From TrEMBL:
Domain Spore germination protein N-terminal: from-to ranges: 24-196
NCBIfam families with a match to the protein in the record: spore_ger_x_C
Family: Belongs to the GerABKC lipoprotein family.
Keywords: Germination, Lipoprotein, Membrane, Palmitate, Signal
Name this protein carries in UniProt: Spore germination protein KC
Residues of the Spore germination GerAC-like C-terminal domain: 219-388
UniProt key word Signal: yes
Parts of the chain that traverse the membrane: none
Length: 395
């Protein structure tokens, strides 16, 4: 009941403040669309970097060739002090009701995330759906300094890049509310998205080849034990996590081709459903995982064709087996890493146990961090190939 009340209070705090501002107030605010939080290694200060919209630059009648955003950094002993200190160099007061994403660097994330968010949540401006992610191998403010993508506002480019994980299932998307929901959930650990600055692929040809500008890449997941960064899941492990905790509406699976060595095939996820059932076996807790997914074969490298219907059915049967093995390996790899390296349940075992065996959960709830690394899992993956998406006579 106490946790329920805390969640309700949090959600109420994250609701946008009501009421209209006067024109004088509107002229004094700076609309912040992205925030980066860093620890300055030299002074120990907290750095708050804000991406602030320039309204005149978005006006078609306004000045041309003007930057659409200002990047402003304030420093202080607390988040509030750093934010207020930006008024020394910016002619506006930061306003967070339209913030799309908050990025936190690794150093601050390892110290504890919840105290950093207190100012934003307590201030009642920030929306709960604001994305929250970790900057890997670099400062968070470096992410805001990347100006690329199609959208003229870098924060929109950043937000949409993070949300594009639904097309590849190699990363996670998490909001402020998602973080607090997982943080307050008994027995559960939080997972946040990860972004990093990566060089663009080289463009051009021959002697004229040149390196493009830097870009932001959304890849993998950050695992939090309580509210401190414990480590990362790579792309394969993040795919395994997404199979466990999400009903994937999209994404992909890439496999070696059975037709030609060295070639690959790609399958698109059409739908996916996962169930986790706890059982006691010989006095030991075991979680039975059932994954049912539908895939479409969308790409086949190589030139070899299959014309006979029987050969086609046999081939698709082999693809199905390969996909089941690939999915199962990524899931098991994720479970074992979270058990052996993090001692941290991000895969949903605690939730399944509380829901389906509440009596058993009550006996292990107080020491779940010690129990989780010792539990077994049994995995069943069932793949259905529902289409080949190929022209007649080509395959």
């Amino acid at each position: 009941m106490v946790r329920f009340i805390l969640v309700v209070c949090l959600l109420l705090c994250l609701l946008p403040a009501t009421g209209c501002k006067t024109p004088e107030e509107l002229n004094n605010i700076g609309i912040v669309v992205a925030v980066a939080l860093d620890r300055d290694a030299a002074s120990g200060d907290i750095l708050v970097t804000s991406e602030v919209i320039r309204p005149a630059a978005l006006d078609k009648k306004g000045a041309r060739n003007q930057e659409v955003v200002d990047i402003v950094t304030g420093r202080g002993s607390t988040i509030f002090e750093a934010v207020r200190n930006t008024t020394q160099i910016l002619d506006r007061i930061n306003f967070y009701a339209h913030t799309k994403v908050i990025i936190v660097d690794e150093t601050l994330a390892k110290e504890g995330l919840t105290p950093l968010l207190d100012f934003f949540v307590r201030g009642r401006q920030l929306r709960g759906y604001t994305l929250l992610c970790i900057a890997k191998q670099g400062q968070a403010k470096d992410i805001l300094n990347v100006k690329t993508g199609v959208d003229v506002i870098p924060a929109i480019y950043l937000r949409d890049t993070i949300k594009n994980t639904k097309y590849n299932n190699k990363a996670v998307v998490s909001s402020v509310v998602d973080y607090y929901r997982d943080f307050l959930k008994e027995g559960n650990c939080s997972v946040l998205g990860v972004v990093e600055v990566a060089p663009s692929e080289e463009s051009g040809s021959g002697d004229k080849q040149k390196t493009g500008a830097e870009q932001v890449k959304s890849s993998g997941a950050a695992v939090f034990k309580k509210d401190r960064l414990a480590g990362y899941l790579d792309e394969t492990e993040t795919q395994g996590l997404n199979w466990l905790v999400k009903e994937l509406p999209n994404g992909m699976v890439t496999l070696p081709s059975r037709l030609e060595p060295g070639k690959l095939i790609s399958l698109e996820i059409e739908s996916s459903k996962t169930s986790i059932k706890p059982e006691y076996r010989e006095g030991k807790l075991c979680f039975v995982i059932q994954v049912d997914t539908e895939l479409t074969l969308v790409e086949q490298q190589g030139k070899k064709k299959i014309l006979a219907p029987k050969a086609m059915l046999d081939y698709l049967g082999g693809v199905r087996e390969d996909a089941e093995r690939e999915i199962g390996d990524s899931i098991s790899r994720t479970i074992l890493k979270t058990q052996n390296e993090f001692d941290c349940d991000v895969v949903g075992f605690a939730s399944a146990l509380k829901q389906k065996e509440p009596a058993i959960w009550r006996t292990v709830a107080d020491n779940w961090e010690e129990v989780f690394p010792t539990v077994d899992h049994e995995l069943h993956v069932q793949v259905h190939i529902v289409g080949t998406a190929l022209k007649q006579g080509f395959f």
